[in-house]
Amino acid sequence: MNVKQPLIYTLSGSLALILSTNTSATSFQILEQSPAYLGQAFSGTASYVSDASSIFFNPAAIGELEGSHLTVAGNAIFTRAKFNDQNSNTNGAPGKTDETGFVPNLYWTYPVAERLTFGLGVNAPFGLSSKYRDDWAGRYLATYSNLELINVNAVAALDLGDYWALGIGLNYQRLDVTLESRVDSTLGINPQPATDSSARIKGDDDDLVADLSLYFKPSSYTRLGLVWRQGGEFDLSGDAKFSLNALCSPGAGYPTGVPPAPTTGTICAAMLNARAGDAKTSIALPDTLTFSISQALSERWWLHVDVARTEWSSLQSVNIINTGNNLTISELELKYKDTIRYAVGLSYHPGFAWTWRFGVAADEAPQTNPELLNPRIPDQDRIWFSTGFNYELSKNVSIDVGYAYIKVDKSRIENTELQTGHYVEGEFDASVNILGVQGNWRF
């Protein structure tokens, strides 16, 4: 049973976006940092170097690139999630979210010495955009969510000799969040979309984080990579605002007992007004550790493997606090667990301008308990199917196109709010399609 604060449980649903966001990878991680790697389901990301996007996937390997390189890319992420209501009691309509997200990537490398290469990347490793109708069954949990994390990554790669290279990087990250939900003005007595109040939270913060990487190339046929990326720690500050329906006002609504007991409207207005204003919370995004190996099977075929661990267990619970009176606006219980992602891919170079890529991957979700899931991201385990190609327009110019279909297991939600009696039960049927295009230039 997912129990939250009276009335304000809408805000813990809102906060779930910060910690439960998604478009492609599980929870709120976005892997789409390179359409080239997208084509092989992000296998061999730390071991196979083809363009400047290695600034993100393995900075130690950018010394493999000859000359200065520029990569500019964009990824369109088409997310569909339909809610099949089974036993909800909130008098709402069917729910779905069909949102399209765009993830840009920009990378530039420059060799400053024989054994030293610098790089600069701009990308968005976390994010979400989702929107439900204001009258759907789960409106007290989520109606609108927008999360953007911009990452600016400066790296240096040092050739250590004897087949080894070392990479170190510094990342500036900026996190901005906007979240909206509805509030039942009748405290569960007669929930109706027409009488709902509304809630909106905005917050932002920034942080500096590091990354370390190794690249090992014992021969021209075998390459290995290991990358650690630190998760940011954000002290989000912003505000919580409420728009009160006429039934959420002193003296309005339904009686809660024999007079002078307050009406539901009196309680609703008092609770929301007390919690409106400046708000804060702290979250720690997960560290990631990725190991990759790429092995030549022949002159034309390469095999790529990725094993990536994401330390989601850093996210167990989060409190939202009103900074003016220290009232707890909401406490969100997550109980995330660490996950591992497995990916296998192939690349085929037939001997002229084309390179073809294929891949599959299995991605674990950090939380699948129906009592803890939130509709801002109907998360579950998923399988990737990817393909793509590179085409060399000239010696110094090429393009990459990648496509992936992600099959998401059905996720079930069984959310109960004890104070109001609201109950949301059903299944989400979700899928994701991703199309990425990038251009590469060598100078």
From TrEMBL:
Recorded GO CC terms: cell outer membrane
A Pfam family hit: Toluene_X
Regions crossing the membrane: none
GO molecular function: long-chain fatty acid transporting porin activity
Keyword line: Cell outer membrane, Membrane, Signal, Transmembrane, Transmembrane beta strand
Primary subcellular site in the record, as a coarse category: membrane
Domain of life, per lineage: Bacteria
Signal peptide: 1-25
Topology in the lipid bilayer: Multi-pass membrane protein
Record bears the keyword Membrane: yes
Subcellular locations according to the entry: Cell outer membrane
Family to which this protein belongs: Belongs to the OmpP1/FadL family.
Protein name from the UniProt record: Putative fatty acid transport system, membrane protein
Organism: Cellvibrio japonicus (strain Ueda107) (Pseudomonas fluorescens subsp. cellulosa)
Organism placement in taxonomy: Bacteria, Pseudomonadati, Pseudomonadota, Gammaproteobacteria, Cellvibrionales
